[in-house]
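Q: What structure does this chain adopt?
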Amino acid sequence: MPNDYQVGQTGKIVAPELYIAVGISGAIQHLAGMKDSKVIVAINKDEEAPIFQVADYGLVADLFKAVPELTAALALKAATLNAVSAAAKIGGDIHVLVAGQGAQAVAEAASKIAGVAKVLLADDAAYAHPLPENVAPLVVNLAKGYGHVLAAASSEGKNLLPRVAALLDVAAISDITGVVSADTFERPIYAGNAIATVKSADPIKVVTVRTTAFEAAAATGGSATVESIAGTGDAGSAKFVGQELTKSERPELTQAKIVVSGGRGMQSGDNFKLLEALADKLGAAVGASRAAVDAGFVPNDYQVGQTGKIVAPELYIAVGISGAIQHLAGMKDSKVIVAINKDEEAPIFQVADYGLVADLFKAVPELTAALDKA
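A:
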């Protein structure tokens, strides 16, 4: 590895929220560079390695087995755990489908989810990329043996399950926030201002789950069997060409514990640097209102709201956001909402736990500076 990767007394001094030391014995010069990390996790096959003396959590294991297993567990998206919780409220055995290429480790991780009875693994090159045109026929073939088919109401789930419902000739029940019984569900309507109770008479209920409405199932504690099944192959109606992924050191918007969002009041994309600086101090994700996205200030994947991403972090800071109904629908379930706006009549203050009527271009830098001193 290049010299600029080196952590230690003669390298770089780091103090991250989480430091994972893999195959590192723990020489004094290395410890000098990372011992102030908030949480230290050590993976080493030598239980006598000095690194364990400073580690908060230690795993004595072969790193060539442990690291791939950890990677697979992380590949299992958190939204899956919320969908499993929704399925548990319906009742009955819960089976999880893992469709992919080289997905055995992910299936093993899924088998450890509490409450899961079986994992069905379709390991096929056709599922190397989750094209709904290829995955939908697989789900349809399997669905005939089940009473319910659930997926998280993510972009993937919302792309896949309506196709499944159409092929099964049943209604799709979208974005549920509650389970009343095995055939009755609650879902928001009118931008979340009303809750509809929907009862389905279809033999197979095809349901997407609003993940913020259900607690995540425990990722460990289960002991489900993993069963390999045959795939349905490439449907031939679509081809994966490529993808451009946004890379960021900040947490993913829908999974972040803290979200800092900006609206039209930011006035330009360049001014979002103020929010990025604040977010970096808090370890937060950065979001935006639809108005900010439509104005071209930030990319579409920043959008929070009815037509964007639904979030429910521990703390949501809305900066320069008026509080249109469609935006509130995407963040009103946040545990604590803080609003900063110079318009004291802005609707955002009606849902905020704490509000600051101030010029954001003064208030945000002051808040960031205060965090520097904390």
